[in-house]
Amino acid sequence: MDSLRHGARLTAILLTLGISSLVSAQDRTALVIANFDYGEHQLTQVKTDAATVAEALRKEGFRVTVAENISGKELKNTVEKFARSTVTRGMAILYFAGLGGQYQTSNSEGALRNHLQGAGKPQDSRNPEREFIPLPDIVKLLSDHSACTCNLVILDAAGTNPFFAGRTNQPSGLAAVQATDLPSDTAVLLAATPNVTLEQPSQLGAAFAKHLPRGRDSVDKVLTAIIDEVRQKSGEKQVPTATKSKLVATASWELGANELFLETPLARDGERPGQHWINSAGMVFCWCPPGQFLMGKAAQDGQADFEDAKPVEVTLTSGFWIGKYEITQLEAERLKVGAGRYPFPGKHYPLHMIQQGQASKLISALNDQERKAGRLPDGWEYALPTEAEWEYACRAGTTTRYAFGDDESQLCRHANYADRSLLESDGAMQFADARFDDGFAKALAPIGSYQPNMWGLHDMHGNVAEWCLDRYLPQLPGGENPRIDEKNKAAAPAGIIRGGSWCSTAEYCESAFRNSEFSGGNAKGRDYIGFRLVLRKK
């Protein structure tokens, strides 16, 4: 029997925008906007700075999109396309170099807001702000559509704006950005002190490119180094200002493991267990190679078998890609096959309250969508995992109770399950284990909050139980590529869920534990059931 114990680390990327882009192999994406053509006002340094920044980002593993001389009308669509291209739990950087300013809008309630100006000469010289996009709009686009857990916006736009030269009451520079105006996953770096107009060329682009590698440690370190560099080079005449949350400040990106990423626009067989690939919707997948394993739970250490999971030998003749994370609220919406805007608790949380049949319809629509777009290889399909595929991926080569071993006390590091925090939040949950605390009470956890298994998969234990393709029979099917599917619906009316959830005991979270859930026409969605995708050959 094969014993597959290879480790894997994060991320890959492949995505295509409708703008000029470079495909790389990371979960890090960047948009560099260089607006240097403003009619008779040409900002020659902007083009140079943008090229320097773009090259530095590529060297740090970012997939970079460069957009030059974007009009005011195009700015919104450009940013939204970029936001929709970002990768689940990845890193996104938006760098804008060009003209900006601050002014009041009809919906700003008298407050001064930062705005970035589209390229070209304004059609109405008396109201150049009509060619702007407000910074709050950019922040909202990232908040609504970026799948990243860290979004960094850099505004290199504090120079003199010639289109405001005739205004006697025009505020200088850019307005201060308040932390309360930003989501916790977004940070903003201004080129200069608020309300100060730069009277010399900006040093920000060069400093950003120089210190970008510090982001391997943390975003906070790269921002601090940039600010210090610019202050020194400008003789204190330019002092960049950062507004960031603790969440963003401690974020970082990892480098040096490109060999673990599959660089291809269309999926194909992976090369090693845990290798990562990312589809056109920014969803991360991990490779599970063909192999054999003992499915179910054998008696050990005085523990009995699960009655409906007595061990059987299983052979999977083909490898498959499986979602690194449970399907999120944002991913379902981004695919345009979900039920609309994500409900509480938010975009980084697992999709839930979904029936097995609903999940299957969603996946069928996804297959149709991706085939029509030419993003699904011939002979491949998205699907729910079979029960055998799910347990094989969960175990990742292990034979223990959990993917991390047999020690139940370690489950709180790997799973959101029925623990002390749940019991404290709801005294009726008397079955919860008061000995351990996973950090989440009566609630879902954002995907990826816990340690992954050896093949890079998160939340295989706990959070939401996950639908499998199979129907439930009181014994495991063994043999080659076993599947109890819709053809057996009459004999097996219930569906299979695996992995346990936020309200499951430690036993229910074991790799081998099986549970059934009614999945007929009158079935109701549950707040503890979701799913993850596989991509396999038919």
TrEMBL record:
UniProt-listed InterPro entries: Caspase-like_dom_sf, CTDL_fold, Pept_C14_caspase, Pept_C14_p20, Sulfatase_Mod_Factor_Kinase, SUMF_dom, SUMF_sf
E.C. numbers: 2.7.11.1
Keyword Flavoprotein: no
Record-level Gene Ontology MF annotations: cysteine-type endopeptidase activity; formylglycine-generating oxidase activity; protein serine/threonine kinase activity
GO biological process: proteolysis
Residues covered by the Caspase family p20 domain: 26-100
Repeat is among the record's keywords: no
Keywords: Kinase, Signal, Transferase
Signal sequence range: 1-25
Protein name, entry field: Serine/threonine-protein kinase pkn1
